[in-house]
Amino acid sequence: MSVKAGFYRVRYRDGHGELQDHVLTLPTGAKVADKAVAEAELGKLLKRAEREAAGMIDRAVDNATMPMLVLLARYIRHLRRNRCSRAHVDQVRAYIKWSVDNGEMIRLADLNEDRVDKVLGKVADKGSSPRTVNVYRRCLYSLAEWAIKVPRVMDRNPVVATERRDEKADTRKMR
After folding, report:
1. 97, 158, 164, 165: least surrounded by Cβ within 10 Å?
2. pLDDT at 167 over 90
3. Can you name the residues that pair with 25 across neighbouring β-strands?
4. pLDDT at residue 93 in the model
5. What is the pLDDT of residues 58-74, one digit of tens each?
6. Average pLDDT for residues 19-41, to the nearest whole number?
7. Cα torsion 170, 135, 147, 153: sign
8. How many C-beta atoms surround the C-beta of residue 2 within 10 A?
């Protein structure tokens, strides 16, 4: 624990063994400037890290209330960092945003098999081809896979349960 710019900064290993380094903040978002409060907050962080390492805390349950738009913003930032083209990023954002809005997915917990199936059904009901439905599915699938692997806010991918549409059965454009 160190003091920088008048606020307490901590460095510790979380439940997965990853090094964490950040300024201590209260649940209100205020930075901690008092030593006793800083020690208490550090104690809470270390206790949580131990519980997580022992498997007593499930990150998926903790993050179930995360807004979907926050997750989408983080995913888009990830795509930009990986040097994806602007056109690709814009297309992915538009498909996922449309899916989130029309599937009424407000929180991360709302990203489930029923809502994904409902959204894909709405895409198909608009008269879209099976290929287009699969593009929407692939965007949601990629978002969920990223949420499992990178920020680890989900424990399983709900899009896996939905079937891919047969693109050869209804070809709209010959490529």
Report:
1. 164
2. no
3. 31
4. 98
5. 777 788 899 999 999 99
6. 88
7. negative
8. 9
Q: Which two tokens stand for residue 95?
A: 């498909």
Give the Cβ contact number of residue 45 at 10 Å: 15
Please give the full DSSP string across the chain, using - where no structure is assigned: -EEETTEEEEEEE-TTS-EEEEE-B-TTSPBP--HHHHHHHHHHHHHHHHHHHTT---HHHHTTTSBHHHHHHHHHHHHHHTT--HHHHHHHHHHHHHHHHHTT--BGGG-SHHHHHHHHHHHHHTT--HHHHHHHHHHHHHHHHHHHHSS---SS-GGGGSPPP-TTTS-SS--
**12 pLDDT exceeds 80?**
yes
Question: What's at 103, amino acid-wise?
Answer: G
d(CA 11, CA 42): 9
Mean pLDDT of all residues in 119-128: 96
The C-alpha atoms of residue 61 and residue 156 are separated, in whole angstroms, by 12
Asked if 149 and 110 count as a contact pair (C-beta separation under 8 A), the reply is: no
Whole-angstrom distance, CA of residue 144 vs CA of residue 154: 8
What's the pTM? 0.71
